[in-house]
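Ticket #4471: structure output looks truncated?

Reporter: J.K.
Steps to reproduce: submitted the chain below (133 residues) through the standard prediction queue, then opened the result file.
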Amino acid sequence: MPYQSSQPSREESERYAASQRFFNALELLPRFEVRLGRLEFRGNRPDGRPILEQKRVDIMLSVDVVQLAAKGQITQANLLAGDSDFIPAVAAAKAEGILVRLFHGSSCHADLLREVDERVKFERAFVDSVSLR
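Returned output as attached by the reporter:
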């Protein structure tokens, strides 16, 4: 979820509410899980804007993939990612016979590209065109 200061501005409150509606809509999709991590405050930029870091989501998703693969509940996994944090989960899923398909943007870690079974590159225009409204 987006960052909210201890006394959120109107903009922060509106952004938070919009995100909440979005994630609530996602949770209603069949066979779809939402994993919300934690947004950590890391100080402020020189212009006063907060520096925020997303934590835990990669691990939560990795655990899901490995558990589902080990229990034989999936035959393939579609991963939307770009960093190398997912490599151990991909390797574990593949060891269970799972086909792993990676959807990635232009900056994707080379080792992750090598580890998956299939790769689908998409551009920013595709991301901008997707809407749940």
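Triage note (M.O.): checked the attachment and the full token line is present. Residues 62 and 88 are 8 Å apart (CA to CA).
Status: closed, working as intended.
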